[in-house]
Design brief:
The protein folds into 2 domains: 105 residues, no CATH class; 110 residues, Arc Repressor Mutant, subunit A. It is 59% helix and 0% strand. It contains 10 helices and no strands. The two termini are 32 Å apart.
Length: 215
């Protein structure tokens, strides 16, 4: 999940056919819930998050989506309760008051990492060495690596690898490009390396995966 606090701007670049749930929480709801949790105004501030794993948010999001689609009696009450539960969870785990605040709440670093993520997505076919990415972020190599891991949960190399494989899956399923061309467009110069990495991540060779998806 990613979190953009009220008053801040953010942009996301989504490739392929992702499934996204966008939830807006009113500032009044956040403020009132914070009061009931005995948090003062300085603590009840949500902090930016960028692509962090949070299974509770995932489960609540799916339940909120189901409730929003439900027109039967009591659905609106359920939706209100779930939204309130989400707000409580965010205040307890993703706010100034939370114990995790020190881990991933540096807005400048998050913004700089997002700049690199956008660049990666737009230049997958190119060589993207770590020193170049760090320079693009405006951080030192050590600061960049740490900030990137805090923001995404992955190393720059691991994130880039997964992004390339995800793009390859999309091209294999939705185009008739030769497998070698797919690999080149996703930054794999050597066909054998592409096939090996794809099989390692997906469990099938690129050709086998294409056939299975189209069967």
């Amino acid at each position: 999940m990613s979190l953009t606090p009220a008053g801040e701007t953010g942009a996301r670049v989504l490739k392929g056919r992702p499934e996204v749930l966008l939830v807006h929480l009113s500032t009044n709801l956040v403020r009132q819930t914070a009061i009931e949790l005995d948090l003062d105004a300085s603590q009840a501030v949500l902090v930016p998050r960028l692509a962090v794993a949070d299974p509770v948010v995932d489960r609540l999001g799916r339940l909120i989506l189901d409730a929003a689609r439900d027109s039967t009696a009591g659905a609106s009450l359920m939706l209100d309760a779930l939204t309130r539960s989400l707000t409580i969870h965010l205040l307890r785990n993703h706010s100034v008051a939370s114990a995790q605040h020190a881990i991933a709440s540096l807005p400048v670093s998050v913004t700089r990492v997002q700049r690199v993520l956008d660049y990666m997505a737009a230049h997958l076919e190119e060589r993207l060495p770590l020193p170049m990415l760090a320079e693009l972020s405006g951080l030192s190599r050590r600061q960049f690596t740490r900030s990137f891991k805090e923001a995404t949960g992955k190393s720059p190399h691991g994130y880039l690898r997964d992004l390339r494989i995800e793009r390859a899956r999309d091209l294999l399923e939705n185009t008739d490009l030769p497998v070698i061309e797919v690999g080149l467009r996703c930054g794999f110069d050597q066909p054998n390396h592409f096939a090996t990495m794809f099989r390692h991540i997906v469990g099938l060779s690129p050709r086998q995966w294409r056939i299975a998806r189209r069967a």
